[in-house]
Write a structure and sequence with these properties.
Length: about 375
C-alpha cells in the first residue's frame, strides 16, 4: 500500500494524539468481610475506598505523563484467615498494584506474607501489633494499633471513669486478644485490678453464663476485645442481668451498627477509635456529608481511613512517577507525609502510623459521639 504525504501527516498526527491521550488503568485491591456478621464494617471500608476512586477519576490524575483511571477489585475474605490467604493470592495473580486492607488482624497477618512475597504494598487497619513486627517493608498501617486503642481505654477507665476493678472478655481472634492484652497492661499500670478474664468466640451471641460469673465479681468496668456483632448482644444482656459495669472496647465495637443493634443498652458503651473526631473539622464534616449523600448511610468506623488511604496511594504514585514499579511505590510510601481527612499519615520503620491519635466515644442516639461532646 502506498501512502500520500497527506495521509502520512494524518497518521503521524493521530499517533501524537494517541500518545497525548495515553491512559493507564490502575487496579487497587480490597480485602474485607463483605458477608457475615462483620459485613457492615467491610462494606463501609469499601465505600470509603470507592468514594476516593470516584473523586480521583473525576479530577484526573497523571502519572509519568499518562492519565490514570483507578479501579477497585473488592474481594470478600469473610473474616476467615484461610479465605483471606486465597483472596491475597487471587489479587496478586490479577496484577493489583496495592491492596487496601485486610480489615481483620487474623486475616491480615497470614495474608501479608503472600503480599510481601509479591512485593505488593498493603494498607490495613488491622491493629494487632504482631502484623507490623514481621519485618516486612510492604505494610503501612493506616489506623491505630492495639497498643494505642487498648492503652487509651486502660487510661480512660482509670483516669476518667475512676475504675478500680475490671473484668475482661475477648473473642480469641487476633484482634480481640491483642486489644484486650493492651487494655490489661495499661489498666494494671494505672492501678486497676483485673478481677476476671473470660473468653468467647467471634460467632457467639449468648453471654449470659459469662456475665453471671462476672457479676459475682462486681467489676466497675468490663472490657470486651471483639466486634459489634458480639458487643451489641453483650451490652443488652448486661442490662438484662443487672450488671452495673460499663462496657469498654476498641474500634471493633465503636460503630453505628453497635448502636443500631444494642438499642438503649448502647448507652453503657465506651470505645476508642483511631483518628480525630470527624465532626470537629471542616474536612471531616465535608467527608461525612459526601459519604451520606453517596451511600445514604452513616459511616461505621474506618471509611475515612480507606478514603484517605486510596488518595495517599495515588499521591505516592504521582511522586514516585510510576504505577507499575512496586519497589519504587513502596519506597515512596515509606517516606510519605500525607495530610488526609482523618489526620496526617506517615509511617515508622515497622510501617506503623506515627503518632496515631485516638478518640474515646460513647454511643448516643445510635451513633458514636466523642466523649464529653
Amino acid at each position: 500500500m502506498r501512502y500520500t504525504a497527506t495521509t502520512l501527516a494524518v497518521l503521524t498526527a493521530a499517533g501524537f494524539c494517541l500518545t497525548a491521550h495515553a491512559q493507564t488503568v490502575v487496579t487497587i485491591g480490597h480485602s474485607a468481610p463483605l458477608t457475615g456478621p462483620q459485613a457492615p464494617n467491610g462494606k463501609d471500608n469499601e465505600n470509603g475506598a470507592r468514594l476516593a476512586i470516584d473523586e480521583l477519576n473525576k479530577s484526573g490524575v497523571t502519572v509519568d505523563g499518562k492519565k490514570v483511571t483507578f479501579k477497585l477489585d473488592s474481594e470478600d475474605d469473610q473474616a476467615d484467615p484461610k479465605v483471606g490467604v486465597q483472596v491475597a493470592q487471587k489479587l496478586v495473580d490479577s496484577g493489583v498494584v496495592a491492596v487496601m486492607g485486610p480489615y481483620n488482624s487474623g486475616v491480615a497477618i497470614p495474608a501479608s506474607r503472600v503480599y510481601n512475597a509479591a512485593g505488593i504494598p498493603i494498607l490495613p487497619v488491622a491493629s494487632n501489633p504482631a502484623l507490623t513486627k514481621q519485618g516486612f517493608k510492604t505494610i503501612f498501617r493506616i489506623g491505630a494499633s492495639d497498643e494505642q486503642l487498648g492503652g487509651t481505654m486502660g487510661q480512660f477507665a482509670a483516669k476518667t471513669l475512676k475504675a478500680k476493678t475490671a473484668a475482661v472478655i475477648d473473642d480469641r481472634t487476633a484482634y480481640g486478644q491483642g486489644v484486650a492484652e493492651q487494655f490489661v497492661k495499661e489498666a494494671k499500670a494505672n492501678g486497676i485490678q483485673i478481677v476476671d478474664q473470660e473468653f468467647t468466640n467471634s460467632a457467639a451471641t449468648d453471654f449470659l453464663g459469662i456475665l453471671t460469673t462476672i457479676k459475682a465479681k462486681n467489676p466497675d468496668v468490663i472490657f470486651f476485645g471483639g466486634y459489634a456483632a458480639q458487643g451489641a448482644p453483650m451490652a443488652k444482656q448486661m442490662r438484662a442481668r443487672g450488671l452495673r459495669a460499663k462496657l469498654l472496647g476498641g474500634d471493633g465495637i465503636c460503630s453505628a451498627d453497635m448502636g443500631k443493634v444494642a438499642g438503649e443498652a448502647a448507652s453503657i458503651v465506651y470505645c476508642a477509635q483511631g483518628g480525630v473526631a470527624l465532626d470537629k473539622t471542616a474536612a471531616g464534616r465535608d467527608f461525612l456529608k459526601k459519604y451520606k449523600d453517596a451511600y445514604h448511610a452513616d459511616t461505621q468506623v474506618y471509611a475515612v481511613n480507606y478514603y484517605d488511604g486510596v488518595k495517599l496511594l495515588a499521591d505516592a504514585m504521582v511522586k514516585a512517577g510510576t504505577t507499575t514499579d512496586k519497589a519504587r511505590l513502596v519506597a515512596q510510601l515509606a517516606k510519605t507525609d500525607y495530610k488526609g481527612v482523618a489526620g496526617t499519615y506517615s509511617f515508622d520503620a515497622n510501617g506503623d502510623l506515627v503518632g496515631a491519635p485516638t478518640t474515646v466515644y460513647i454511643i448516643k442516639d445510635g451513633l458514636p459521639v466523642p466523649y464529653g461532646q
